[in-house]
Amino acid sequence: MSDVLDAARAWAAADPDAETRAELEASIAAAEGGDAAALTSVTDAFSGRLQFGTAGLRGRIGPGPNRMNRVVVQQASAGLADFLLGREPHPSVVIGWDGRRGSEQFARDAAAVFAGRGVRAILLPRLLPTPVTAFAVRHLGTSAGVMVTASHNPPADNGYKVYLGGDDEGSQIVPPVDGEIAALIEQAAATPVAEYPRGEPETAGEGVWRAYVEATAAIGQADQGMQGATGPRAVYTPLHGVGLETVEAVLAEAGFPALIPVPEQARPDGAFPTVDFPNPEEPGALDLAMALATAEGAELIVANDPDADRLAVAVPDATAPSGWRMLTGNEVGLLLGWDAARSARGHGVLAASIVSSPGLGVIAEAHGLEFVQTLTGFKWVSRVPGLVYGYEEALGYLVNPGTVRDKDGISALVRLLTLASELHERGSSLSEELLALAGEFGAFESGQVSVRVTELARIPATMAALRAQPPSELAGAAVLAADDLALPEHGAIGDILRFTLDDGSRVMVRPSGTEPKVKVYIDATSTDGPPAARIRAARARVAAIAEAVAPLLEA
């Protein structure tokens, strides 16, 4: 106890942030007074260091090395600066930030440390979507990019996402680079941040943002006759994030009709007051959008997560209680994949993460294209050579790899609206196009079961239990193979378990890379009967398997 409290007192004495310093001092005082909860909180905050990995940093805001705060951000920036200086003599970095608590201050702290260490630091002009930062790395030709965001994580979190320029073309970092940077962060942390040299960063002009707007709008003008076309009346929500300004500018540039924004969620607000979790995948996140769409007589709902790198879509459905059905990430992924495949004219590669629908491979084969499955995480999807389109089922889509090398919810929205407008002009819709795809390629339905935990130890315990005793059958189908994808004979892909069923279904289990969850991905297919019957059959299998899987997660 004394060692932890001594470390906490030393941190409080040097903390440059008055808010986290006061929070820590109050916790220390409470712990000294015998408050067990306060002692547990302090111990957790000082029991280790927030791990720097392929997602950079992400965690709860608060004092201590195991939290997101100004000290940790400056230490990370010093380590990244040293890494860049070891690679080239005159490196540069562009820094962006979103509307979360602390994001702007973290970005400015990072920029000052970069500049003080001799790295040219360029701040974006204001809070902007993550895809703009990813774009800026390539547009400005910088050595790296940093985006301060926790994407769709809970309001208490923030993060520090790293891209590399040059041969990495603006993609997220991958091993072994993450480990090299982490080691340099550890070295930099040995020096108090108050002793770090600081410099004055540059601030980018509006030209970077305008260039992103023009490049993204262009992919909605690619189809003849699309500019100025009338499309379905659509409601849009950025979920209290930073997407609205850029989305409106892009769509105006591309000639699309204006969207109807959800007023309660239109402006950046890091408290995310209208949603439990600012993730469009979470139940209830689109309730306000659905109510507004019904009131406005809209035909489509589109949503970005708070940093606008993901896209969610909902369509009218008379059988749903709300009158709307949110499309799964795989449904949107296959629609956009089919759209990309027909435009590729036999040249290029389609890619998806290993837990995404196998349906994209069927579409690729039908169009004479190569299909590549990658490790989970968009950092792998974006790096596939020859890529013309890539996606992951967690609402991440890359439709313009020549411009951005990360998932981009705004460019995906543009292509989705382009497709929806084309179908609308033919008297069709996205729902009817999904039927058409099922008729041409078979129905590919997917579902997810996830368990959010408060005790992180439950995650490895669940995975260990499934490894020790995998199921022999699920929902009446025998398990033909139970593969541990962490083993070399299965590619050493990662902490993923794959169960192949004798009816052609597939179940994959893995820990979430960004949230305290165990996630199960279920895929089923059907080629029997007319398209609607195929979809119903595959959907029924997904539901049955999901029900059978849920008890297995209670480790």
TrEMBL record:
Keyword Membrane: no
Domain Alpha-D-phosphohexomutase alpha/beta/alpha: 50-188, 231-314, 329-434
Entry superkingdom: Bacteria
UniProt keyword Glycosyltransferase, yes or no: no
Cofactor: Mg(2+)
Pfam families: PGM_PMM_I, PGM_PMM_II, PGM_PMM_III, PGM_PMM_IV
MF terms (GO), sorted A to Z: magnesium ion binding; phosphopentomutase activity
Family affiliation: Belongs to the phosphohexose mutase family.
Protein name: Phosphomannomutase
Species the sequence originates in: Agrococcus baldri
Lineage: Bacteria, Bacillati, Actinomycetota, Actinomycetes, Micrococcales
